[in-house]
Automatic annotation (TrEMBL):
Residues 111-453 form the Amidohydrolase-related domain. Belongs to the FAH family. GO terms for biological process: oxaloacetate metabolic process. One of its GO terms (molecular function) is metal ion binding. Residues 1-34 are annotated as: Disordered. Residues 821-1052 form the AB hydrolase-1 domain. Residues 551-764 form the Fumarylacetoacetase-like C-terminal domain. It comes from the Eukaryota. It comes from Aspergillus transmontanensis. This is Fumarylacetoacetate hydrolase. PANTHER family: ACYLPYRUVASE, ACYLPYRUVASE FAHD1, MITOCHONDRIAL. Keywords: Metal-binding.
Amino acid sequence: MAPGILANGFHDRTTPSSTLPTRRRPYPHEGLRFDPKLKPKSYRMTGTSPDSKILFLDVNILDSTGNDPYRGDVLIHGERIVSVGSVPDVEGLRHDPKVRVVQGRGRTFMSGLGDAHTHWTWNNIALELLGDIGVEEHTLITARSALCYLDSGYTMCYGAASAKDRLDCVVRDAINRGTLPGPRLLANGREIAKREGELAAGITAFAEGPLEMREVIRHHAKIGVDQIKLSMSGEAITETVSAEECFFTDEETAACVDEAHRNGIRVCSHARARDSVIQCARHGVDVIYHASYTDEEGMQMLEKVKDRVVVAPALNWLYATVYEAEPFGYSMEKAEQVGYRRELETAIKALKEMHKRGITVLPGGDYGFAWCPHGTYARDLEHFVKLLDFTPMESIVAATAGIAKLFMQEDELGKILPGYYADCILVDGDPLKDIAVLQDHSKLDVIMINGRIHKAQPTEFLNTSAVPPSLQEKKSYFNFVAFEDDLGRSRIGHLDLGDSTIQPLTMASGSPLANLSQVIELGDEGVVRAAEAPFPLSSVKLLPPLADRDVLCIGENYRKHIKEYRESGFAAADNKVTDSPQVPTVFTKRSTSITASGTDIYPHPGFTQTMDYEGELGVIIGKAGFSINEKDAMDYIWGYTIINDLSARERQRDHRQYFMGKSPDTFCPMGPVAVEAAALSGDIRVQTYVNGEKRQDGTTADLIFSIPKLIETVSSGITLQPGDVIATGTPHGVGVGHHPPKFLKPGDLVEVSVTGLGKLSNRIADPGSKNPTIERVLQKPSSIPTYNLDRTWGGVGLTKVAPDHYINVRELGSKSPDAETIVFIHGLGASLEYYSPLVQAAGLESNYRIILYDLEGHGATPARASSTATLQTFARDLDLLFAAKSITSATLVGWSLGGLIAMFFAEKHPSRVTTLILLGPGPTPFPEPAVEVFTKRAALVREKGMEASGVANAVTTAATSGATKSRPLAISAVRQSLLSTHPEGYAKGCIALARSRGTVITVENLRMPTLIVAGQEDAISPVKLAQGYRSKIPNSQVELLKDVGHWHVFEDLEGTAEAINRFLGRL
């Protein structure tokens, strides 16, 4: 195919151009003809100087017309583009001191991006929590989201709903006035829904029937929205309102569209369901969100009205919920259970067909949720290419010119053409070759909105002196602070030193930041503000910025301090300290001495009576280095923090070295913040106060050995690592330097302030207090790993059944106190999700209390590496589960290994098991030949994992029937179950089976009614084994499933459900 010719479905012809390479037929959005009466108000952004001129030289111009990119120059005057490609008098402009000139070096110059499905008021938490946020905090959240969009290269946002009536409108107007930074916005209000059909009550405007809906829409129009939104269908994640159900009637939808259009505003709709899409097409809804379950009837109706309707699928929400929500506690199995995987597959098929038929489909991914966070908006463009078969050009044009068409400003937004607003981005990369480059904020070198530069490094300009100070971009820096969240996990935020609030920070990907080492590794562009409201500093426990290794310290680096210390009488007798040392004195403070700002300092009674303070600047190393030259040393610095080098002077003297006197527990307060080196320039001042009295005051200009010299010295024989901290020495004024000495005593408040780093504050504790360090050390995580814990984000949502013993449990079904309980025990290589379809297919939830749980190391239950799993430990866990859930007696359903556990438990606790249902139970005792097989298998998966070891494939093949192997979905379910099992959990299950050779379950003692379900082609637990159990268990029966192997539920769900129902029905 010739370069520049795009072919996809109905786009198969080209239109020649006399000046540029060929282009394709018109894009779908070019055929849109919205009613002119619905054009939003013309908002004008203020704040751009009409005299401003910016010249971009040698850029690769991607103009969003569909033409191939081409090299050229671009001139911007005021708020608009005036020349593209060839700029008149370019040399004169280049040398004009009033013109800011950017050397493009072939980078891509393109329109700012647009989002058709924007929620500025969402803040990466669950929808139902948004209604509880105060309007003041929510305004800040909305403003931050707007800034995040602009930081991500987005200059057009089409509002899809606001959590409160006027938030979108207020922030939109503030941006247009120039009060706040942000993109252009067409604002929405609260989404309109019927009672019991809403997604989240706290953010919904309720209305029942056409008359009330008209009234609500008039209210929305009155407060100044540009469009309104109907919530017509449900959402799978709620598990209460189905995504396939339409809650509006035709009469209601028609009334809403009529009333909105009467008021000159357009209508959007949350419409996943088939019937809701049909109603939207029939009655004139302008923007359809999602449209996942569009069938052929709906497709034909959309095709007929494609000149007036836009579909914005919010594809990333579906994709992320299925594939990326597990770290946030929403498993892939859960997503599949509630229907998201099916919805994603159905939506992709429908959207491809829409694209083929020329229906306008625009990007916008419903961002603002935990696993679909703000700042990741450009993922939609990649999804359009990889999932919907858009070409990169089609995806980009949809996100630029297509959104401009949605704005009804296609003649002045969304393209790089003369006369258009200068909403532009300069990209270090070619998005036509790699569409994902637009997700990398570090590659967005220049961002402009309305002719104003929002982001650009000073080095971008050929002549930075020509830039007026008022227009120069000033970079802001984070005051990185470490703190514990409400779950006890370490997090990183930005501390506002003015109002003492913390703004949580995340990686640019949206993942939480756990420590400063991650910040250092990610670099400047890898950290962004989280879309969460700030909270008071006083509401959390502060942590030191870095606390995992010893601090490197410099002694005697200020001349006046050398003098005072030498004259104090506490210098060791053989200490030959001079006023002009030839090399720095280097020592370390043990990591256990590190504590945070705000903590109390343990006074160590009996160890020291001469506690002294030393306020210091701490240098934080940013990259590894060895034998670093002094002239290069500043390149190795990441940033700075504050340190109080507390000292026990008599110990320092008596041991004739520093370590013992400097390293007592809590003797190294650090923080409260760490700041990048670029944030601090010039001399840095260090001051120390005790109970408000200034004791120390010095600057880095007074250092004997400069910071670069210290780095050269320390690295001469030691490899410095990222995160190493060097305390640079203390000025004069320490307690021991006074006459008489002013040592610290209980109750004293010591405060060290450093330029740009705030104040490190600590109080000396009472002598009768406890040393907090021993408690902290004892609470440190064990060096023995606990596997599988990351799936629940450190254990969130697990059920505690004993001290330090947690199990993943799901309880379903009847809440009646009289309901019988059924406990399901899965087998090796599965999880509780194995039983979810069975519970539903058998209809057990209506009459029974259902308990599903994961075995050790399976599903979401953690596994400690040192624990040895056996039938006995599995039965013990089941016993603990009975106690934790207050189960007096229950029916046990056990599959495979779970069948053995159920029988073993029933033998030990016959009064607590009313009924047994065994699906392909394993043999007892375990046969000797199988012991070696499972022992080797355990070692294999521990070495190579489930996939590379071949175990997943081998088990899938060996444990399913011939008929099942011809059904890809069933085979995929088996493989997915095995691959989702942690290798350590699988290995423990194997070892438990191998060790059960010495455990004999006397099945003849099982007197409760027992059903044994066997697959006729089960090679693992063959029919002969089931019949053997039948002959030994007194009150038992066997049900055979035809064409079924060992994975009964996946291979024959209906047959398994029917067998269980027949059995339970006879009891």
